[in-house]
Amino acid sequence: MAGCSGRARDVSDSPEPVTANPTASAPTTEDSAIEPGTGGGDTAVDPGGGAEPDTTSLVPLDSVGIGFTTIATVPQPLDLVAGPDSSLYVASKTGVVFRIGPDGSPEEWYDIGDRVSTEGERGLLGIAFGPRGRFYASFTDRDGNTRISAWRIVDDGVDPASEVSVITVDQPFANHNGGHIEFGPDAMLYLGLGDGGSGYDPLGSGQDTATLLGSILRIDAAGVADGYRIPSDNPFVDHPEIVAPEIWLFGVRNPWRFSIDPETGDLWIGDVGQDRIEEIDLLPAGPGADVGGRGANLGWGVLEGDDIIGDPSDLVSDPVAPLHTYSHDFGVSVTGGLVYRGGAVPDLEGVYLFADFGSGTLWGLRPGPEGPEVAVLAEEVGSIAGFGVDAAGEVYLLDLSGPVLKLRPAD
User: Fold this and answer.
1) pTM of the model
2) Which residues of 325-337 are buried (b: 16+ CB within 10 A; e: fewer)?
3) Fold of 4-11+37-409
4) Taking all residues of the chain, what is their mean pLDDT, rounded to a whole number?
């Protein structure tokens, strides 16, 4: 598989592309190369699937009052995480990581701006604190490629000399790089990668399972000194000749962003659409699973949301239907969020929050047996490019123009 470095692996580096069913005439893969049960076909969920809470006593989402408090202003914030000390750390697109001080002032914590490309959708795209006292950053390097590096945390910062390269993935275009990273409850590192860019997936990355592009990866980055291992329980480790074994799920266009519900292990994805449809995907963890989405195919570039825009015979396995879609009448670029697990706004417990970068609309989505309840919670909030959560489970919205907003009850 071309375009990847930093690996510590004992599987084939050159899997052959999957051959899709040449006779299919609808979105089905009964005869496809990835058999249902190997991670491709048995993860499909009903569009109204996911957790099914008792909704009889819940306050309707359109009745929930919320507000925002600006806690800090940071140049082009894209990601926010709570550190081991419970302080908030914010990744700026420019390549600087800021720590929010007790008085709300952003303090420069670590700067890798000299190695980050920031044109277009590039930049410092994601940060995470991992096991074994290491800090991880996902960024676009000076060659325009996706890179994840890790540093050892020391005292009040990181040791610059301790940097190791975890993974580098070649990016053919300057957009659709994805870049979000998150450690799951299984201590594995999840990385979201777009289809590589341009428009309408010209490289066919979404359904090409020999490439890492157009996928969410799952790798063991904490269990090695540098590089990574491929977890032995990844869905495609037994098929390295046809599927890159780093892949956890595939068929995404530009997952901006994804999140793992810490209470359920459900995986939520906001996948940016092409010209018409934005989508939210819910991959339930299910019994005995740490994280949802194992082996799923989300359908891009045959499907945009729930619409067929390509040749169904190009699907290499049965696609998982989105939980929710919206047209460009309501926004132009989804920003995936997270499930609210804080205490400040009890009526939002278990509700997935997401936004649109273009319209500034914030929505709440509550799964249910009759399909999801979706409601506008706030309008014209800002150019929301990311979400974050603190140690108490409270939610923050990141406006690319600078403000870091804390969600709170209405006045």
Assistant:
1) 0.88
2) bbebeebbbbbbb
3) Neuraminidase (2.120.10)
4) 88
